[in-house]
Design a protein that fits this description.
The complex is a heterodimer of chains A (798) and B (292).
Chain A: H1 9-15, H2 40-47, H3 51-67, E1 71-75, E2 80-84, E3 92-95, H4 96-120, H5 125-128, H6 134-138, E4 160-167, E5 173-179, H7 186-199, H8 201-206, H9 213-226, E6 238-241, H10 250-260, E7 264-265, E8 270-273, E9 276-281, E10 284-287, E11 290-293, H11 316-322, E12 326-328, H12 341-353, E13 364-366, H13 370-378, E14 383-387, H14 400-407, H15 411-418, E15 422-426, E16 432-437, E17 440-455, E18 458-461, E19 467-469, E20 485-487, E21 489-492, H16 520-553, H17 559-570, H18 579-595, H19 603-619, H20 626-649, H21 654-678, H22 687-694, H23 698-705, H24 711-720, H25 728-741, H26 753-766, H27 775-796
Parallel strand pairs in A: 3-21, 6-7, 6-11, 11-12
Antiparallel strand pairs in A: 1-2, 4-5, 4-17, 8-9, 9-10, 13-15, 14-15, 16-17, 17-18, 17-19, 19-20
Chain B: E1 2-24, E2 34-44, E3 49-54, E4 60-66, E5 70-83, H1 96-104, H2 129-138, H3 145-159, E6 161-162, H4 173-179, E7 181-182, H5 184-197, E8 202-209, E9 227-233, E10 240-244, E11 249-250, E12 255-261, H6 264-267, E13 270-275, E14 280-290
Parallel strand pairs in B: 6-7
Antiparallel strand pairs in B: 1-4, 1-5, 1-13, 1-14, 2-5, 3-4, 8-9, 8-12, 9-10, 10-11
Helix pairs in contact in B: 2-5, 3-5, 4-5
The chains are: A alpha+beta (798), B alpha+beta (292).
């Protein structure tokens, strides 16, 4: 490949019509009208591809993201939906030398913010000295009084921050916002990178692009060191705290947890005992010494912070006060995101560090000062006026109050009245970068999000990874919620770069993976996932059985139909609704349970589950009789595929055992109930065949008995047979086997209430003959199995 | 004057609740004019953890944790408090515009700083138009911050009718103002919002009133349970002034302070986090007896 590829015809086609906006800097085209040096190789490589090839590569990248389950949650007025990750296929390229200056400037800024934080939660000199208006702190919902005076155990308040920066009209970079609470995006950056590298794999492999993995490895090491790994303290456990699957960035939380190999916990997973944060596991309480929180601080502890929170851990603040926990970042760091702070940081930098900000932030005026207010009023035309205490990223959501006040013509009154509650900010104009639209490159506004992590060697800057691209040429359209795109960012070096992986460099001591006790909530969710899937399967079987008979007989008359309908009704399922109405809620519950354990769940399993949901909605319109039979059979095959994936591919940790116990107990319960109904001596003709069919044991019966089914053969096969995987006895034996591997069972101590009840239920089934298995006895067994579920919850899910 | 105080707060849960953790603000704080001579806080059943500390506003906090499931729990405070009667002070407070200047001249964030008490707080967002207008009208003729505080208390007392049961602990101040009925918590919240809308820093005081009035005086509203009233910052010289809008009176020797904060959420006597599945109930009893 030639460095100067201007002459190639393909390149002319790629850049043809690419016209930067007047007076707006462009990342690709320099002031001289030519592509910047950093872009040369990529443009040359892409120019050598036909439009069809490019489209195929972009589709491959999208497929990767979709297969990897990358999504974000989009909020609409009342509801939220998950959307595919909107990736722009053109990375943003930044020259290494320019990047180094950005990194140096942001490192200084992170250090400055650490000092501001230490002052706001310590001596309070900035306010007392008149450098920061007291109202911005005292009236700030992110300034958390319970945290005042609480020293961070690690010695630092900030460990992981991000900055949004953009390039202004003069070509210089500006900080648009400080993200110091729990910035998201780094996981998406990794996925952007993988997808983009996949699209342009040959080029990426030899391009001098800084790799991202080293950043994560160093930060993981730093977390482990904070947890005491260096001193060999086994209790030094690290965890990530998430608000849960309803959060916009939950995918990323699960992704990073998997990537770093640390547990993902929700507030309810943890308790505080004796001043120590503990995780509730199936092996009892285990200490946590480092918590990387991915939720806003006010929700972290309903006792001392926002009392309405249901996603926090009561006593968390108390644990921090007791000094046994390091928090990334310290609770209360959200105050640094306050928009009005940008108005004071330039002076604070002079005051604290004795130098101006190395990279300026967007010009901001706090309207609580009369002079500043007058300035904003007289320059209103090129100002954005918004809430002074807002901590939202600049482009996340519109500030409508200012627009309303402007349109109603009482802007000046409003400004005067609201004063200290407002800031004016110079209207942002951003540089543009190329994005593909309809196969052509067009200039679109962009900003970078840059991540910094504190390690023992100081702040590490993630070299690229995440840019936001507007869909329109207006800068206000950057927000993903409004249809913006995300793009990879490549830091391009002139020299070859070092390959980085998550693995430690040779010669380093390998980090031992943390011994992982299964959190109780994860066990609970896996258990219920097993139950729901099994329940869905049985409902589909019942449904199919009904329609098979309808197709054979043409009309749903007779006692057998009535018996089936009654059996379904006892499960809360009505035949008058559609198949999707009958199975949908159960499947939804299964997906809900699976969503909570995505960090321990194989991707294929998850996709099989969502496929199942999609198929269910497609088959819901099937005709009664044959059509429904076919639809039900399709669903049964897909359920079997899911079960196979999960049971074949899941490592035999205790999580898998809970999933299996869930399936086994549900199946034992279902089969006992269907035998009670369909093997009853008074059951209508054909009920015994039906029981065998529902128990999926038609073949086994034929092979074992070589005769028409009788009550005795059916009960023998479906209740008592220790070799038939559908039999009640088989299920209970399996449960006993799984339980023997669970924590607590290995000790030679008294049997737990669960184990005792299990033994009792087993004896009632195994120690008997078909003749003694009356309908009453079968119903009693079903009841005993249901009780086992409660006892298991008491033993492990509390 | 010496008082013996008994405060008992009890909860019962239909299905035993696990993982219970509580923050109590029941032991009276040290405030000017009041001395806590002795206090005992009895917890039943015995908690597995108990920690005493002070919060940001220097209130006394008792932190509790219960490992075992709780079917019921009771907190009983017995305290002896010495309270000095407050002599009526001459109003030396500045006009409202001067108050703003005096406030700006005190840029601190210490516990005593008035700056905490002017912005919206967890339970008290900015006063809606009707409430701000009511306050502005009540204080229209006030020459000083002190007069404005008295005038707002008087007007609010006239606007509202004391009625136990008309509101509950989750009623917003807007709803209570609209319904014109409520108890001391509602009076206090509404008045704080009004004073803040006038630019006067104002906070919430939880405490007690003596149960039986002195001979020949009427029984005050709010003596059967914990009481609440308002503290307002009236300038650098005057400092904090306390006023009881439920009874429209200056706070005197019969008001005993437990805790101060921006609104109820800062001073709630019991804040609990407990995993519940069934219904629960609670009760509160207060006795405040002068010691002869």
């Amino acid at each position: 490949m030639t460095r100067d590829a201007r002459a190639t015809p393909g390149r002319r086609a790629l850049l043809e019509g690419y016209q930067p906006l007047k007076g707006v800097p462009d990342e690709l085209i320099g002031e001289d009208g030519r592509p910047r040096a950093a872009w040369g190789d990529l443009i040359a490589a892409l120019s050598a591809m036909t439009p069809e090839e490019l489209a195929g590569r972009h589709a491959a990248a999208d497929r990767y993201l979709s297969d990897a389950g990358v999504f974000y949650r989009q909020y609409e007025q009342e509801s939220s939906t998950t959307r595919d990750w909107p990736m722009s296929h053109m990375p943003v390229l930044i020259d290494r030398a320019e990047w180094e200056e950005i990194a140096a400037a942001l490192t200084e800024r992170a250090d400055l913010l650490e000092k501001v934080m230490a002052d706001l939660y310590g001596p309070g000199r900035l306010v007392a000295g008149g450098h920061l208006p007291p109202a911005l702190v005292a009236g700030n919902p992110e300034w958390l009084r319970p945290m005042v005076g609480v020293q961070p155990r690690s010695g630092h308040y900030l460990h992981y921050v991000a900055f949004d920066i953009g390039r202004g009209p003069g070509g210089a970079w500006w900080v648009l916002g400080d993200r110091c609470q729990a910035p998201s995006g780094a996981g998406f950056a990794l996925e952007n990178r993988i997808a983009t590298a996949r699209a342009y794999s040959e080029h990426y492999a030899r391009a001098n692009v800084e790799r991202l993995a080293g950043f994560f490895r160093r930060f993981r090491d730093a977390l482990m060191e904070m947890g005491g790994a260096a001193e060999g303290r086994p209790e030094g456990r690290v965890a990530i705290m998430t608000p849960g699957p309803a959060n916009a960035a939950y995918f990323e939380h699960a992704y990073i947890a998997r990537y770093l190999g640390v547990p993902l916990l929700e507030g309810d997973d943890m308790v505080v005992r004796g001043g120590q944060l503990m995780v509730r596991t199936v092996s009892g309480l285990r200490p946590i010494s480092v918590l990387w929180r991915r939720l806003d601080a006010t929700w972290a502890d309903p006792l001392e912070l926002d009392e309405r929170s249901h996603i926090g851990t009561p006593g968390l603040v108390s644990a921090l006060r007791a000094g046994g926990l390091s928090m990334v970042n310290a609770l209360g760091s959200g105050v640094l995101e306050t928009r009005a702070l940008l108005a004071f940081l330039p002076r604070i930098s002079e005051l604290i560090d004795g130098r101006p900000l190395r990279m300026p932030n967007i010009a901001t005026w706090w309207c609580g000062g009369a002079e500043e207010r007058a300035y904003v009023r007289s320059h209103a035309g090129r100002m954005t006026v918004s809430s002074a205490l807002s901590t939202r990223a600049l482009f996340d959501a519109g500030e409508t109050a200012a627009e309303t006040a402007r349109s109603e013509g009482n802007f000046e009154d409003w400004l005067e009245r609201q004063g200290g509650a407002l800031v004016g900010q110079e209207a942002v104009s951003l540089s543009t970068t190329p994005a593909f639209e309809g196969g052509r490159l067009v200039p679109r506004p962009m900003s970078l999000r840059i991540f910094l992590a504190r390690t023992k060697d100081g702040w590490q800057v993630m070299p690229g990874g995440y840019a936001r691209i507007g869909r329109e040429s207006r800068p206000a359209e950057l927000a993903l919620q409004r249809g913006g795109l995300a793009a990879d960012v490549w830091v391009v070096s002139k020299q070859p770069v070092q390959a980085e992986t998550m693995l430690p460099a040779s010669g380093d001591d390998p980090l031992r993976l943390q011994p992982s006790a299964l959190p109780s909530r994860a066990a609970d969710n896996l258990f219920w996932l097993g139950r729901y899937i099994e329940r869905a399967e049985m409902i589909v079987r019942l449904w199919r059985a009904w329609h098979v008979r309808l197709a054979e007989q043409g009309a749903a008359d007779g006692p057998l139909f009535a018996a089936l309908e009654a059996h379904l009704a006892a499960r809360g399922v009505s035949l008058s609704a559609g198949l999707d109405d009958a199975v949908g809620p159960v499947l939804q519950s299964a997906i809900g349970s699976a969503a909570h354990v995505r960090d321990r769940f194989s991707l294929d399993g998850w996709l099989a589950l969502t496929d199942l949901e999609r198929t269910l909605s497609e088959v819901s319109a099937a005709e009664p009789g044959d059509g429904t039979v076919r639809a039900a059979s399709t669903l049964l095959r897909m359920i079997a595929a899911f079960s196979g994936l999960v049971h074949e591919n899941m490592y035999r940790f205790s999580g898998w055992r809970f999933l299996s116990i869930g399936r086994d107990l549900e199946r034992a319960h279902s089969v006992a109930r269907l035998l009670a109904d369909f093997a009853d001596p008074e059951a209508p003709d054909g009920a015994l065949d039906l029981a065998i069919e529902l128990g999926d044991s038609t073949m086994s019966h034929r092979r074992r008995y070589a005769a028409a089914p009788t009550r005795a053969t059916v009960l023998d096969l479906l209740a008592l047979d220790a070799l038939n995987p559908r039999a009640v006895a088989f299920q209970l034996t399996e449960v006993a086997e799984h339980v023997s591997y669970l924590p607590g069972a290995e000790r030679h101590r008294q049997l737990s209430p669960f184990q005792r009840a299990l033994l009792h239920a087993q004896a009632a089934v195994q120690g008997t003959t078909p003749g003694a298995l009356t309908t009453e006895r079968l119903n009693a067994s079903a009841e005993e199995v249901a009780q086992l579920s409660t006892l298991l919850a008491e033993a492990y899910f509390r | 004057m010496l008082y013996d105080v008994t405060l008992r707060i009890a909860y019962n849960y239909d299905s035993p609740a696990t993982g219970g953790r509580h923050l109590l603000r029941m032991i009276p704080a040290d405030v000017p004019g009041q001395r806590l001579i002795a206090a005992g806080l009895e917890i039943s059943p015995r908690p597995s953890e108990r920690l005493e500390r002070k919060d940001f506003f220097n209130n006394r906090v008792t932190e509790l944790a219960f490992d075992a499931p709780l079917a019921k729990v009771a907190f009983t405070l017995r305290a002896r408090i010495e309270r000095q009667a407050q002599a009526a002070r001459l109003d030396a407070s500045p006009s409202l515009p001067r108050l703003a200047a005096e406030l700006a001249a005190q840029p601190q964030l210490t516990a005593a700083s008035p700056h905490h008490f002017l912005p919206p707080s967890p339970r008290l967002g900015a006063a809606p138009k009707a409430i701000a207008a009511f306050a502005a009208e009540a204080a229209a003729d006030a020459a000083s911050a002190g007069e404005a505080v008295a005038a707002v208390s008087r007007a609010l007392h006239g606007h509202m009718t004391f009625e136990a049961g008309a509101t509950h602990v989750g009623t917003t101040f807007e709803e209570a103002f609209e319904g014109r009925r409520g108890v001391c918590q509602d009076y206090t919240h509404i008045m704080i919002a009004m004073l803040r809308s006038l630019g006067i820093p104002a906070g919430y005081v939880s405490g007690f009133l003596r149960t039986e009035p002195p001979e020949g005086q009427p029984r005050l509203e709010g003596a059967d349970a914990m009481h609440a009233w308002v503290r307002a910052w009236c300038g650098a010289a005057t400092g904090w002034v306390e006023i009881d809008p439920t009874n429209d009176m200056a706070v005197g020797g019969d008001h005993l302070t437990v805790a101060i904060g921006r609104d109820y959420s800062d001073v709630a006597p019991v804040r609990g986090a407990i995993r519940l599945s069934g219904a629960h109930g609670s009760s509160q009893a207060v006795d405040v007896i002068p010691v002869e």
